[in-house]
What we know:
17% strand, Butyryl-CoA Dehydrogenase, subunit A, domain 2, Butyryl-Coa Dehydrogenase, subunit A, domain 1, two-stranded antiparallel sheet
Amino acid sequence: MTAYFAPIRDMQFVINELADLSKVAALPTFAEQEVSPELLEAVLEEAAKLATEVLAPINKSGDVQGVRIDPTGVVSAAGFTEAYRSFIDGGWNGIGSPVEHGGQGLPELFNTATQEMWNSANMSFALCPMLNAGAIEAISRAGSAEQRALYLPNMVSGEWTGTMNLTEPQAGSDLSAVRTRAVPHGDHYRIFGQKIFITWGDHDMTENTIHLVLARTPDAPEGVKGISLFIVPKFLVNPDGSLGARNDVHAVSIEHKLGIHASPTCVMAFGDRDGAIGYLVGEENKGLAYMFIMMNEARFKVGLQGLAIAERAYQAAREYAKDRVQGRPAGAKSGDRIAIIHHPDVRRMLMTMKAQNEAMRALAYVIAMHLDLARHHPDSAIRQTHQARVDLLIPVVKAGPPKSASKSLR
Ligand SMILES: Cc1cc2nc3c(=O)[nH]c(=O)nc-3n(C[C@H](O)[C@H](O)[C@H](O)COP(=O)(O)OP(=O)(O)OC[C@H]3O[C@@H](n4cnc5c(N)ncnc54)[C@H](O)[C@@H]3O)c2cc1C
């Protein structure tokens, strides 16, 4: 497999010139961080080191080896736990999270560029923080103050990871068919049901996993109006933040997904014994709205994955074309054979790939800019305008070219 080179100059061009970093830097939220093109360059250079020196080298080996289940749970591919430790020790997990939750409070624009690098270098690895980010966002916006205080610091630092448990065998695109049950039990609920395709549903890279689970309470109305959202920790968390008993939730098997065998896509069983203990997030029957917080986050990141994989494919194609010697220059009947990169039609194909990637990067990063302005602009009318752009453009980046590279996470 060819090495990965982080396209830092292309990223800087889009962020500084097209996504207008100066507008984002002027937001009061980022005053303390002193956001600037120089800070951007420093962050991208450090991220590139992690991506190229730590994550990319275990991409192929992780995919060949894959993950496995033993009686204690899912065992990660070789090198992943150490790489994850470097990732969180470097503060990368919380780069875009608010300082009050232990994050670095940097713009989504910075976060987006680093996410592109993680996904280009090693998409199996990058899926773990990606799903965690969706769970963090949902708890931040829909969880109680107590839930935020109990779960967010460790999720933002990356000491614990979060998952998104929506899909069931009969409920894929159509979530109105969700059947997982949540039975009230004192101050919590007992969850019973099965979820499938749960990305990083179980693993041994961290000591706890916080599942966000869609389920129905006993008197819930039929369809999407009867879905609620629950926090179901792998290990229960005591009020002082220490870990308690093992909860009744387990990975029972792993799906095989092309190119991401090091990402455990799990079938999860909730409540095989006396019910997994779960805590309601927000109000009962409002789960669908909260789920969209996670899904919109995931949709944007899945679009970004398309770009990241396409960038890696372009780099591999370019290196191959430089190496592969075949044929002579057009019209020459003798003389030295040349590398195929010198044939005009091969150049055309490479330039098409590059141009499509750059267009996709511009779109993704401009969305990140709108996200920053939608979240942090002091004027609520301006926030709404930027949010409208985000709502319009996220489905475009999710479905847009080069779409063959993005996977089917809704
Ligand atoms: C690698 C991977 C990771 C995943 N990770 C997670 C995760 O972490 N958490 C989680 O909860 N889920 C996860 N999923 C599941 C994912 O969200 C579902 O695969 C997705 O919702 C589609 O459901 P389905 O596979 O059952 O397809 P189906 O719903 O059976 O759809 C099959 C096809 O029919 C089309 N279709 C269905 N209904 C309609 C309609 N009404 N109109 C037009 N077309 C329609 C779909 O677009 C699709 O092309 C993951 C999936 C994959 C592949």
